[in-house]
Write a structure and sequence with these properties.
CATH class of the largest domain: Alpha Beta
Distance between the termini: 64 Å
Number of domains: 2
Oligomer: single chain
CATH topology of the largest domain: Aspartate Aminotransferase, domain 2
CATH architecture of the largest domain: 3-Layer(aba) Sandwich
Radius of gyration: 21 Å
């Protein structure tokens, strides 16, 4: 047997996180994670569970009783929604305009569903007319859309119109809100969304591990009336209902520290006010967008579809996108990310989310990005970018 490995103290780099997630974690959330552990059925923890659910309803803008943090990353809440709502033989309509529409399709297929698509180019939203035509042609049981497409930087408008079209054909509506919850206007009940899932590590500025999910009575009725159990025991919402519902019966050991974390992150949302938080994200990200464009760079989506929490910036001709990303990490401890799928190599994805959505981070990003581009010979005007961003913030 080998000797014990000589591993030193954990010292990860102190990065400024402005990629597609995670975002910088608020200090109060980190402190919450260092508080004493209790059992997952301890009476004190059950009270914490109740508080998390109430705070999550506020953030989703819903009265849904069935609103919980799924034990896992955002992909777990995504799979919990799709894997429970799509039964073998069901049809799910999914979008083709981004990477995460493709993930919806993959999960629906694994759940035994038949996938059909509503088509739109990467970098553009779904058009209501195209959705109506696709739904009329296929009569899906479930319709999924991505509210804030992380791969393209596109915000989906016309959500109430899309949900009305789906409901007119008796389809359940599932919304991917991973990059919108807590940062971009989202009104689950008012907009007619039946089920919505998100991740905690983006606009909520919380480490991954307990991921928001909400379902209305119509969606839960479909879940609880299934003829065949979902293929995942761990994510079976009919079983999780016993733990997060009134009985609080054992199902699995919840990630207690992560529940502490999301409780504090959601408390920060409530203290700031959800609409004020939406306004802050739009204002700070707007300054970032204005500054980037004043430097001489271009955004990927049209202005009317711009997603404040995730800014997709076009890579200039002659510039190596990976080299810029590496330069920012090595010289500035600053993280941004490259494109995914059809946009790989064409864009940088710059997050402006949660605790990272602060004016000082915008200035830091503009200076660092400008210097990284100058090092590659790109013609950018950092001073103009800083001046435009400052003006946009009213400074």
């Amino acid at each position: 047997m080998s000797d014990a490995p000589d591993v030193g103290e954990l010292r990860p780099p102190d990065r400024t996180l402005m990629g597609p997630g995670p975002s910088d974690v608020h200090p109060r959330v980190l402190r919450a994670m260092s508080t004493p552990l209790v059992g997952h059925l301890d009476p004190s923890f059950i009270e914490i569970m109740n508080e998390v659910q109430e705070l999550m309803r506020y953030t989703f803008r819903t009265d849904n009783q069935w609103t919980i943090p799924v034990s896992g990353t955002g992909s777990a809440s995504m799979e919990a929604a799709i894997g429970n709502l799509v039964e073998p033989g069901d049809t799910m309509l999914v979008p083709t305009n981004g990477y995460f529409g493709g993930r919806m399709a993959s999960m629906a297929e694994r759940a035994g569903g038949e996938v059909v698509t509503v088509d739109a180019p990467w970098g553009e939203p779904l058009e209501p007319a195209a959705v109506e035509e696709a739904i009329s042609d296929t009569q899906p049981d479930v319709f999924g859309f991505v509210h804030a497409e992380t791969s393209t930087g596109v915000l989906q408008p016309d959500v109430p119109e899309l949900t009305e079209i789906a409901h007119d054909h008796d389809a359940i509506v599932v919304a991917d809100c991973v990059t919108s919850l807590g940062g971009i206007e989202l009104r689950v009940d008012e907009w007619g969304i039946d089920a919505a899932y998100a991740g905690p590590q983006k606009c909520l500025s919380c480490p991954p591990g307990a991921s928001p999910l909400t379902l209305n009575d119509r969606a839960m009725e479909k879940v609880l009336s299934r003829e065949e159990a979902p293929r995942s025991w761990y994510l079976d919402l009919s079983l999780l209902e016993g733990y997060w519902g009134e009985d609080r019966s054992y199902h699995h050991t919840a990630p207690i520290t992560n529940v502490y974390a999301i409780r504090e992150a959601l408390r920060l949302v409530a203290e700031e006010g959800i609409e004020e938080r939406w306004d802050r994200h739009r204002a700070v990200a707007g300054a970032l967008k204005t500054g980037v464009e004043a430097m001489g760079l271009e955004m990927n989506p049209d202005d009317e579809y711009w997603l404040p929490s995730l800014n997709a910036v076009r890579v200039p001709d002659g510039v190596e996108d990976d080299a810029v990303i590496e330069h920012l990490l090595e010289e500035y401890d600053l993280e941004i990310a490259g494109g995914l799928g059809d946009l790989s190599g064409d864009v940088w994805r710059i997050g402006c989310m949660g605790h990272s959505a602060r004016p000082k981070n915008v200035s830091f990003l503009l200076v660092a990005l400008g210097n990284a581009l100058t090092a590659q010979g790109a013609d950018v005007d950092v001073d103009a970018g800083l001046a435009a961003a400052s003006a946009a913030l009213g400074n």
